[in-house]
Every structure is written in C-alpha cells, then in structure tokens.
Amino acid sequence: MADAVRDTAFAEIAPEHFLPAFEQAFADHTAEITAITYDPAVPDFANTITALERAGKLLSKVSAVFHDLVSAHSNPALLEIDKEVSLRMARHWNPIMMNAVLFGRIAMLHDNRAMLELTPEQNRLLERTYTRFHRAGAGLDEVAKSRMPRSTSGWRISARRSAIICSATNNSGSWNSARPTATAFRIASSRRRRPRPASAAWPARRS
C-alpha cells in the first residue's frame, strides 16, 4: 500500500509543477526569515536559532523531491528546470546569509553563549549557525559586502552534474523514459521523517 501511494504521488508530478512549488517555498521561507529577523522579543535560542532550523520546511521538501528525481530520472525538461532552480536558489539565499539584522541576533547569542546554559547539542548548533553567517559575510559593512561576489557556483554544480549524468545515460543507450521508480521518493520521504539536520535547508558552507 505504501509503495502504491508513493507511485501514485510520483505519477502526478510533472516537470512544470516544480517552479511554482519552488516559488511558493521561497515565499514561505522568506516570510519565516523576516518574522525571525524582526521579532520584537529579545533574541534567545528558541526564537532565533531554533526558529531558523524550523524555517524552510516546504523548501526542504520540494528540494529533496526535485533533486532526487533529477538524480534518479534526469531528462532535458528537468535539467532546464534545474538550471533555473540553481539561479533562483542563489538569489534566495544570498540576501538571507548577508542579513546584518538577523546576524546581529545570532551574534548576540554567540557572544553570550556562556550565560545561556545551553546543552552541548545547542552549543554546536549555535556555533554552526554563527559560522555560516560569518563566513558568508553577514558581519561585514555595506562597502565590504558590495565587494563580495554573489557566487552561484555551488548551485550550478548540481545542474552540471545532472547534465553529465543524463548525457552519459543517453549515450550508453540505456535511456528509459518510463515513469521513475519510487526509490527517489522513498529517499526524500525518509529524509523528511528524520529530524532535519542544520544543512537540510541551508546552503553549503563557504570555505
């Protein structure tokens, strides 16, 4: 029964469904980030760090299904969407990771972490969150920020890799245009059932 439900859900997904889904996910996530950024309450772990971790659930779900589908069953239509998604993902994340007001809340907690009585897991999450924003340049002044490249290379890698896989599959003569199996959907579903790690809806850290 579970496999049948997954098969049915997958059969209902068409390439043209993804961009509207991503647009809604970006809008929802932006609204969540704005609410966290301008929360009038004094920053604490719950209303800042935990809230950031819980934000973007729809974006995580849409991304998981899309990228697993691209990996498992690439085709020209999906690869074109993957290119567009890569660009839109970068445009979505850059202003978040450079948000000075949001980073101010995170930095305040980081500076006072010794007094917050956090668990070891909470301390690690706070440190990881602070490091991501700091490395992205959120603490820089506007002049310094303007000199930083708005790189989309991290998101483009996915599109290029998918294109290579698709090309190799086609060239090998093993291209199968049948409906994809439920494997990728099971992977995405299992990811959604597990507690979402910090990286699930966050861009890769810059070195």
Fraction of residues in helices?
Answer: 55-70%
Order of helices and strands: HHHHHHHHHH
pLDDT averaged residue by residue: 75
Question: What is the CATH C-level name?
Answer: Mainly Alpha
Q: At CATH's second level, what is the architecture?
A: Orthogonal Bundle
Distance between the termini: 45 Å
How many individual β-strands?
0
Plain-language structure description:
The protein is an all-alpha fold. The chain has a single domain, classed as Neurolysin, domain 3, CATH 1.10.1370.40. Helices cover 69% and strands 0% of the residues. The chain is built from ten helices and no strands. It has helices at residues 2-11, 18-37, 45-54, 57-72, 76-97, 100-111, 120-136, 142-147, 153-171, 183-193. The longest helix is centred in the middle third of the chain and has 22 residues, at 76-97. Mean pLDDT is 75; it is low at 1-8 and 151-200.
Supply database-style keywords.
about 210 residues; Neurolysin, domain 3; mainly alpha; 10 helices
Summary, kept brief:
Helices cover 69% and strands 0% of the residues. It is mainly alpha-helical and 207 residues long.
Secondary structure blueprint with pairings:
Elements: H1 2-11, H2 18-37, H3 45-54, H4 57-72, H5 76-97, H6 100-111, H7 120-136, H8 142-147, H9 153-171, H10 183-193
Helix pairs in contact: 2-3, 2-4, 2-5, 4-10, 5-9, 6-7
